[in-house]
């Protein structure tokens, strides 16, 4: 009996190229590490635990599909013809989830954000959010200079928004052929912002600035639920008129706001307790199983890996610069750490900003400004994505 075929997970190591075998080993151990980092809340557990399991399992569970092909029975993300799709739907474990949800961008992007902070400080939030789009704007010409076609360059640049649903949607609309690597890179990097962004804050903002308190007027007016509801429906309608390409994401975002402010508790409970958790679970699991060595080492992926981390880094730097800009024009009555919260990974970057500020000075609270910038970052990112999706196809005409 040939042991290589009896234990195919091990046997396939000896039948594939050396660099692919090494990558499999690395990804197996990376998957295990993500599970433990997620379980300890160092990284986002809702995504990292299922993602780590999927990554370890898919790279360990490769087998001989035929005499010439090595793969898995989990999912084949590159199938496009109908007979091939029907075939894998009968065999592959997660292919139905990928085909009918993930690859069609039906992963939940309805979030129940409080836009009150944005409406309290609209000028401050919008200005910082524009600065935080630095990575999304600057990465595009860099990608073009590296030889990427405009659609690929735009899809890579949008990783700088740090907004997962935006990245999925834009890659499907602009460059579906790189949907899998772009999505894997984006979500892997987004999860790693927990680890990287605190270092950017410490490198760019001295401790005395991080601990600075923001003095507010005692006459601060509270924003009512009615005003938030009006903002959500009017804002949604106007932005959809201007940028129809971004309608699915704008609708999801503003609908979440409207449901929350309308007090429809049954919808809130249903979506939060069932839909969003299920979406997060399958999102993490699908991302993990898409991280097989063949996908990660695809020649297309290397420049995307570089451009993704560049975009996210530049967006963070731009946000901090925006924070400093507000600090100086407000007569030094601002905390520049708020700037990094405008990178629209809700609510992660706002939490990171507050955590670093608390380390510098426990009594300093910036969360309301950080959440305002965070929510505004979502809107500016959606607007910029809509511009890319509208303009890039026109360049090819």
Question: Which band does the percent of strand residues land in?
Answer: under 5%
Low-confidence stretches: none
What is the count of β-strands? 2
Number of domains: 2
Structure description:
This protein has 397 residues and is an all-alpha fold. The chain has 2 domains: 3-104, no CATH class; 116-272 and 296-395, no CATH class. The protein is built from 20 helices and 2 strands. It has a two-stranded antiparallel ribbon with strand order 1-2. A hairpin with a 5-residue loop joins strand 1 and strand 2 (70-71). The longest helix is centred in the C-terminal third of the chain and has 29 residues, at 301-329. It starts with a helix and ends with a helix.
Spell out the key features of this protein.
mainly alpha, 2 strands, 20 helices, 397 residues, two-stranded antiparallel sheet, 69% helix, single chain
């Amino acid at each position: 009996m040939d042991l290589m075929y009896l234990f195919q997970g091990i046997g396939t190591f000896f039948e594939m190229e050396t660099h692919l075998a090494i990558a499999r080993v690395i990804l197996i151990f990376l998957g295990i590490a993500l599970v433990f980092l997620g379980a300890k809340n160092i990284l986002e557990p809702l995504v990292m635990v299922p993602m780590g399991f999927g990554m370890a399992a898919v790279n360990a569970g490769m087998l001989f599909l035929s005499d010439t092909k090595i793969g898995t029975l989990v999912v084949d993300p590159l199938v496009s013809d109908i007979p091939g799709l029907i075939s894998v739907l009968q065999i592959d474990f997660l292919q139905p989830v990928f085909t009918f949800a993930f690859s069609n961008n039906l992963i939940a992007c309805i979030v129940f954000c409080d836009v009150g902070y944005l409406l309290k400080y609209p000028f401050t939030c919008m200005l910082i959010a524009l600065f935080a789009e630095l990575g999304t704007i600057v990465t595009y010409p860099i990608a073009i200079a590296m030889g990427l076609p405009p659609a690929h360059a735009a899809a890579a640049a949008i990783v700088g928004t740090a907004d997962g649903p935006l990245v999925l949607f834009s890659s499907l609309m602009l460059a579906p052929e790189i949907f899998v690597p772009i999505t894997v890179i984006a979500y892997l990097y987004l999860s790693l912002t927990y680890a990287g962004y605190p270092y950017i804050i410490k490198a760019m903002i001295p401790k005395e600035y991080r601990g600075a308190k923001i003095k507010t007027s005692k006459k601060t007016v509270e924003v009512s639920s009615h005003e938030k509801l009006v903002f959500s429906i009017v804002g949604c309608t106007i932005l959809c008129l201007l940028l129809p390409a971004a309608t699915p994401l704008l609708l999801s975002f503003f609908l979440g706001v409207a449901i929350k402010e309308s007090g429809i508790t049954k919808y809130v409970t249903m979506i939060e307790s069932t839909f969003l958790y299920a979406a997060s679970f399958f999102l993490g699991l699908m991302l993990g199983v898409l991280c097989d060595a063949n996908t990660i080492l695809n020649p297309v992926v290397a420049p995307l890996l570089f451009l993704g981390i560049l975009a996210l880094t530049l967006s963070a730097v731009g946000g901090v610069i925006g924070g400093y800009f507000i600090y100086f024009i407000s007569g030094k009555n601002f905390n520049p750490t708020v700037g990094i919260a405008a990178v629209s990974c809700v609510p992660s970057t706002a939490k990171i900003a507050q955590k670093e500020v608390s380390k510098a000075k426990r009594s300093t609270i910036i969360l309301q400004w950080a959440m305002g910038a965070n929510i505004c970052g979502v809107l500016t990112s959606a607007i910029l994505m809509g511009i890319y999706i509208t303009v890039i196809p026109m360049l090819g005409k």
